[in-house]
Every structure is written in C-alpha cells, then in structure tokens.
Design brief:
It is built from nine helices and ten strands.
Amino acid sequence: MSRNLPFSHRSISQIVASVLLLIVFGCVTAWSQATEKARPLLEFEGNKVFSKQELLATADKCLDRAFEGAHKYTSEQLDYCLHKVTQLMWTRGYLQAKLKTSRVEETADRQRVVLAVSEGPLYRVGEMKIEGARVFSPEQVRDTIGLKTGDVANGQAISEGLFERLKTSYGKFGYIQYTADIQPTFHVEENTSEGVADFDITIDEGAQFKIRSIKFAGGDEQLRQYLRQQLLLLREGDVFVEDLLRESVKRINDTRLYDPIDVDKDVDYRTDEEAALLDLTIRLKKTGASAASR
C-alpha cells in the first residue's frame, strides 16, 4: 500500500507532542466563553508557587504574538495562550497543573477573565522504564530525554526528548515512522508538596525504510541528470536519511537553476509499507531568470 508520508512537517510533530502530553498528564486549559472582542484582561487566582506576574507575563507574550496587528481575538487563540501558561508549570515539574475559568466578566470594551490555578505537587523523576527500543538502548533513550532519577520532572524536556530529538535520531537510520507512547504513574503522599512520577515509555520503531526511487518533476532532462549525478547524496537502494535529503535540496537550491525547493512542501513522499520502500518526487520549477535565458 502506498500513502503520503506523515513525518515531513516538523510542525506536525510539535503539535502531536503537545497534545500527547496534554492527554498524558491530564492537564486541562481554560476555554474562553467569549465571542470575538478586544483583547481580554486576564487575572489568576489560587496560585502559590508561581507568581501572578510570571503567569501573566507568559500569557501576555503569547497574546502579543497572536494579536499583533489585530483588534479582535478568538477563543481558540486565547485558549492556546493559556495552554502555554500551563506548559510553563509543566516545565517546572508541576505535571498535574491545571487552569480553569473561574468567571468571565463583561465590560463595555473587553472581557475580564479570572482563571483558577491548580498547581498540584512538584514531581521528581522516579523510574523511567523503556520498552520496544532495539536500535537504541534504554540508556541511550534516557540520555536523549536528558532526565535522571531525582530530577525535577520537566514535562517539556520529556516531550522534546521523545517526540523531537529521539524521532530525529531514528530518522537518521531510516526509521521514519517512529512513534512513542508515555504513561506516567504519580506517587504523592497526602498533605505533601512533592511526589514522584514513574514513566512507562513504549517505543514503536517501525520498519527501516529504503529508497526505491527518486524522481524529478519539472525541469529539463539534461539538468535533471546533472542534479541526480552531481548533487543528490541519496541513491536508490540506500536507507533513507532525512538529513541527506535536506542537504541534497540545499545543494540544488545553491545552483539557483530553479526556484527554491522547500523540503516540506515541494517533495512528495510515498511509502510502500509492506516492502518498507520509499518513493521520492522532487518538484522543480524554473526561476524567471533561468527560464528567460533559455
């Protein structure tokens, strides 16, 4: 079976990582009840560890980007920025931190949104169990995550280690469909401010993909042959390495023979999962200057 390869957009992996941690740690951000209006006024209550100034600064930084050049907002934009506030607490080990809308007050020109903060206990890393890894040892996986027993359980470090750095490492060996699942178990005694989080991490490496074909779409045959022979660092039969594809595309772009190629937009990936083979098609388009000189 052939299908579009889902791994090529790095932004997708970043979204997936955030969503997985949201599910794993059970953190719920607050949804605004509002329709589009002027930028809301945010207030936090119930926080003890994190100051109101720190929480508001994180929210404001995100809102500044979301509202740059705009005078209205959507509830989705606000919710995203509140999610960034929750992520701040995750990075400090407060893996069960939550935000909940306490009340929304309407004024003539904007909303006042009061958010109840539930920080929960500070968690430190307990046992980190790794299953399913063959290419890399459990020790190498833990080193990639970068946390050891007793460290503050930084949720962002766990996410980036599993879903970005380790994914990249597997990609260098042709394991382009690598995925990981993480299940935490929280241990905390009653009336204590700290606890321990054990992590069961299951890795699905998938198959190691090799290149079946590399094709060019567009351009003329003579130049396509030149690009294939002189600039491509990948060949049919090779294990697919994304870094080599990106370097090949950079070399092609450096010739300025064609419009700049975007690896994430101008390269089509088709996989034959049963055979673990990959077909690549690089789309070429003549630059205006090159086309005029022909």
